[in-house]
Design goal:
Elements lengths: L14 H52 L3 E5 L14 E5 L15 E5 L7 E4 L6 E3 L5 E2 L5 E6 L8 E5 L5 E3 L23
Antiparallel strand pairs: 1-2, 1-5, 2-3, 4-7, 5-6, 7-8, 8-9
Length: about 200
């Protein structure tokens, strides 16, 4: 009985075969990378919009359930509301309505949303620094209704938005005209302004 292995077990790749394999792999990778980057960007944008939607929904429900006004805003180092929506966003009960989160005054922090990727943009109105939900579930005060726009860097076609109406309801953007880009409820394209 012969226990030797067949001859093909001892043969390997030639240098030319290896170089052709590497070239084919490189070509396939270069073709797939733009599609992969666009797909990963879409996933990131969808995740951020979904998280923001849940945050706003939580704030509205908290206002209704506690029968107190609930504020949503990004805070600076002094816990004051700012218009820098790309930073961490918090939901809290602002008992004295002064746009400052004051835990020592028994103000309750309900939820937070982490900052977005620093190359992307999240905008809400021009100079608007907060959203307030009244105990009725409606938005209260000037600038509480408006549109959040999320625009990823280098992929404007992946931009998404959430419209907050005065009734407090939320409306996510959709591709109304089937051109591959989301539009807001009025039919306009989502465009983040340069700051």
């Amino acid at each position: 009985m012969d226990n030797t292995l067949p001859r093909f077990f001892f043969t390997g790749f030639t240098l030319i075969e290896l170089m052709v394999s590497i070239a084919i792999t490189s070509i396939l990778a270069s073709i797939a990378m733009p599609s992969l980057n666009a797909y990963l960007t879409k996933l990131r944008v969808d995740n951020e919009i979904s998280t923001l939607h849940r945050l706003l929904f939580t704030a509205r429900n908290a206002a209704i359930n506690t029968q107190l006004p609930v504020t949503i805003c990004p805070l600076n180092e002094q816990n004051q509301c700012t218009s820098q929506w790309q930073n961490e966003i918090v939901v809290f009960i602002d008992l004295n309505n002064n746009n400052i989160y004051e835990p020592l005054n028994s103000e309750t922090l309900i939820r937070t949303k982490s900052a977005i990727r620093n190359t992307d943009k999240l905008q809400y109105g021009i100079g608007r620094s907060r959203i307030i939900y009244a105990p009725t579930g409606r938005t209260a005060g000037w600038g509480s209704n408006g549109t959040f726009k999320y625009c990823p860097e280098n992929y404007p076609e992946q931009s998404r938005a959430i419209r907050i109406s005065t009734s407090g309801r939320l409306y996510a953007s959709s591709d109304i005209d089937h051109d591959g880009r989301d539009e807001i409820r009025s039919g306009g394209e989502i465009n983040c302004r340069a700051e």
